[in-house]
């Protein structure tokens, strides 16, 4: 079995002491057991071992406690395995029957927290199943039924968010809240996530929440007052283009993140076109950054909607470099950038965008600016 040296670059303290950990548990003879860095078991496997005499052991060294997932292979092919989250802060004992770990302060605390949130999680899953059953039934629900289900979901989700937020806020010096943050970060308000990140909460260090840290870093890059961050993609002809080819050249520019498959994006485009037609002669420009993954639908959408502005894409869908750079996890999304390349507003749509542009181009010095 290979030894693991876990190094987490995000928020790593300046001084760290290597810590030994050991993970043990009981399973049937010759059972394959895995160690993963994330609950997505198709990637980030850290280690694996075949049990001997009904037990398995993982051991290694970390500079800071990590959050791993111990997975027991299913007895029959095609069945899901059993997964247990653990924190590597010492000698850990895994119990696949209860799907919990114990033996260290962090793992005992994680076990207690899992027990605390289980009724809330079950309640939320129960409401989700009601929605699924209603959809499968093919029946048209009444407005009263939909309202009741929606209210139930909002209440269940609110209780879950409150519990997870409380666990995180009360344990900024612990690693185990990373388990909850990895799943529920999208439901926690941005200001709270900023506080966790800027305050160097210990649970922001494990690999499993590295995507949350990257998202926050992207949000910071798109805050009003920040200079835009450049990236390169291709235009519809296949030519390489940089955002800086269009931004910071003396004009106000709207960077519109969209995709051909995004209904809300396509519904917003007529509003953007109207403003483009109104102010383009005065210098206003638009750069469409597509999150498409296939070129044909992207080109067809540009042609069908007759988009007159610059269009670029790396055709990587949600794995687009722009999504990571600017912390974009939903579209449509926009950046309004001033003539010097400074971001002045984000996610303006409809009347808000129109009001902002009206304010800009009512100024005599801007109104007289030639198109470049």
TrEMBL record:
Residues 1-18 form the signal peptide. InterPro entries: AhpC/TSA, DUF4369, Thioredoxin-like_sf, Thioredoxin_CS, Thioredoxin_domain, Thioredoxin_ResA/DsbE_sf. Its EC number is 1.11.1.15. It is found in: Cell envelope. One of its GO terms (molecular function) is peroxidase activity. GO terms for cellular component: cell envelope. Keywords: Cytochrome c-type biogenesis, Disulfide bond, Oxidoreductase, Peroxidase, Redox-active center, Signal. This is Antioxidant, AhpC/TSA family. The lineage of its organism: Bacteria, Pseudomonadati, Bacteroidota, Bacteroidia, Bacteroidales.
């Amino acid at each position: 079995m290979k030894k693991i040296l876990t190094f987490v670059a995000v928020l790593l303290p300046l001084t760290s002491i290597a810590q030994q950990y050991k993970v043990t548990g009981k399973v049937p003879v010759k059972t394959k057991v895995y160690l993963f860095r994330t609950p997505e078991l198709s990637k980030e496997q850290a280690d694996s071992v075949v049990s001997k005499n009904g037990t398995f052991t993982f051991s290694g060294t970390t500079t800071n406690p990590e959050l791993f997932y111990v997975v027991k292979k299913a007895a029959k092919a095609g069945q899901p395995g059993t997964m247990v989250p653990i924190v590597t802060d010492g000698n850990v004992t895994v119990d696949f029957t209860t799907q919990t770990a114990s033996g260290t302060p962090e793992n005992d605390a994680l076990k207690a927290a899992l027990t605390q949130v289980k009724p809330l999680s079950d309640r939320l899953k129960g409401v989700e199943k009601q929605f699924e059953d209603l959809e499968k039934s093919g029946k048209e629900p009444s407005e009263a039924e939909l309202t009741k289900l929606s209210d139930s979901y909002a209440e269940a989700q609110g209780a879950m968010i409150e519990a997870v937020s409380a666990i995180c806020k009360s344990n900024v010096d612990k690693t185990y809240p990373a388990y909850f943050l990895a799943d529920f970060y999208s439901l926690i308000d941005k200001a709270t996530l900023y506080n966790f990140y800027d305050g160097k909460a210990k649970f922001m260090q494990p690999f499993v929440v590295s995507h949350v840290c990257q998202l926050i870093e992207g949000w910071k890059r798109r805050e009003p007052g920040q200079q835009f961050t450049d990236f390169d993609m291709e235009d519809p002809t296949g030519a390489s283009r940089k955002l800086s080819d269009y931004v910071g050249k003396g004009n106000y520019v709207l960077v519109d993140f969209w995709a051909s498959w995004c209904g809300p994006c396509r519904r917003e485009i007529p509003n953007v076109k109207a403003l483009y037609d109104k102010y383009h002669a005065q210098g206003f420009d638009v750069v469409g950054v597509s999150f498409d993954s296939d070129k044909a639908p992207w080109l067809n959408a540009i042609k069908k909607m007759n988009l007159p502005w610059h269009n670029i894409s790396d055709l990587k869908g949600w794995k687009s470099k722009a999504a990571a750079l600017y912390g974009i996890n939903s579209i449509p999304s926009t950046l309004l950038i001033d003539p010097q390349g400074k971001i002045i507003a984000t996610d303006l749509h409809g009347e808000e965008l129109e009001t902002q542009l009206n304010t800009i181009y009512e100024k005599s010095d801007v109104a007289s600016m030639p198109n470049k």
